[in-house]
């Protein structure tokens, strides 16, 4: 259930942020007349996502067992691919999402009402379709039955809507880049379990061999109906008796993806983050004769004193060379 809650929270928060940015920009620029087309596009995107999810759920029930397993396995692989692309894309563009949406909205405002509807529909619809597909794949991979996974998804979506409203009201501020990085990493772990179960579906559909080759079987040590077995299943899609293919696919996806996702230097630091403040100081450039000096309180008197001492020494040196009496030197 936690894995499905995370899916609903992560995907729903992305959509909520998009809606908040669009609405806040229109309100700030005094274009409230464009709010109605925006809400129309958002509503159409939500309806499309619900229709797509319903078609996946009820349409697959009319197929034969092998066709259901083949469809479920294929869509699970597609869903994992889309979610993987999404978490990398969101981590890279989280801090630039606002300016990107503002640019698209400005262009839509110049083109008219239909463009506004289309902009909101595409911005929210992509998130909705990805969510519907990945939720359906996660529900298929779950052994809890349909209600519990869907409850987790609904709770995640409701939390995302609440957070989006708090963002819009200015009552909540978090580091979105860091939030999407860590939730993205957790979502990669969930996706690894969905991918492994997708290949198990393809094995049951006889598209992939090795259904009888078990990597291990720890059903007695971790019963599927125990509380910890249920917890592992809900969070990681853990299976106590996976096939060799499932374990290989899980490892080949999870390890390289997490290493690449959390690779040092790939997550850009915000200029306002503490990490930037703790960075090593940059060596100061030695002042050149043409450099403009910045006045520092108390420094000018010291410089003048040093300069006066140096001038006095130069006068005495010159006097000794010419054999003259330098006389008193004014400081």
TrEMBL record:
Transmembrane feature ranges: 38-58, 70-88, 108-129, 149-167, 179-199, 243-263
Xref: NCBIfam families: EfeU
PANTHER family listed in its UniProt record: IRON TRANSPORTER FTH1, PLASMA MEMBRANE IRON PERMEASE
Spans annotated as Disordered: 278-331
Source domain of life: Bacteria
Membrane topology of this protein: Multi-pass membrane protein
Name of this chain's protein: FTR1 family protein
Main location: membrane
Bias kind Basic and acidic residues: ranges: 299-324
One Pfam assignment: FTR1
Entry-linked InterPro entries: FTR1/Fip1/EfeU
Source species of the chain: Streptomyces olivaceiscleroticus
Signal sequence segment: none
Compartments, as annotated in UniProt: Membrane
Key words of the record: Membrane, Transmembrane, Transmembrane helix
Family recorded in the similarity comment: Belongs to the oxidase-dependent Fe transporter (OFeT) (TC 9.A.10.1) family.
